């Protein structure tokens, strides 16, 4: 369990006066929106850098790994398996390009263990999440959806282990979250953009594409975010609502 936890704080009454009444479908991102995820990857990187420290400083290792991850997004996608392959590729890159003693089989074995251990990380549901899902599903007003990206099997396992699957009418694991992916999701759900609300912690993946197609988005920032998911500057849009992650859960609908 990590020491800093994000807690849903839903918009206050002043904000909610402007919240659309026509919302029928509410989609939730999974990682770092329903449960803790990113901190486990950062912890894995720390141990990884310890193994490779004879080859390069930590900052150089992290920077190189990130570039390899971006290169591998197209062939491997997102998730622990893709991350593991990037760890291995980066380690070989440093080992082969250094005059230091090469990586040993046991070190490479440990690197593989670091990556694959992320497949079975604990499912730490964020405070307030289950209460919110219970209220929304119990209201009978909304169709609840999980709309996440990553490895299909990995995300299905996480949802099953979380105990939250029963609150959702549909589970969508997308290879990426962009405009076209959300257009496809809306068509599959049979809803218009004005009936759709996306809740998530990534401005790049959960918020901007939804606003682009004309939907509504509720941004719940998490304290740890992968560099690839960050967006520079403030985003202002009439369909965008923002929740602080540091205050108690409030009523939303």
Summarize the structure.
By secondary structure, the chain is an alpha/beta fold. It contains 9 helices and 6 strands; from the N terminus they run H-E-H-H-H-H-H-E-H-E-H-E-H-E-E. Mean pLDDT is 87; it is low at 1-18 and 245-251.
Task: Present the secondary structure layout.
Layout: H1 13-16, E1 25-28, H2 38-51, H3 58-76, H4 80-96, H5 105-116, H6 129-139, E2 143-149, H7 152-162, E3 170-174, H8 179-189, E4 196-200, H9 203-213, E5 216-219, E6 240-242
Parallel strand pairs: 1-2, 1-4, 2-3, 4-5, 5-6
Structure description:
By secondary structure, the protein is α/β, with parallel strands linked by helices. The protein is 43% helix and 11% strand. The chain has nine helices and six strands; from the N terminus they run H-E-H-H-H-H-H-E-H-E-H-E-H-E-E. A six-stranded parallel sheet has the order 3-2-1-4-5-6, sandwiched between helices. Helix 7 links the parallel strand 2 and strand 3. The longest helix has 19 residues, at 58-76. The model is unreliable at 1-18 and 245-251 (pLDDT under 50).
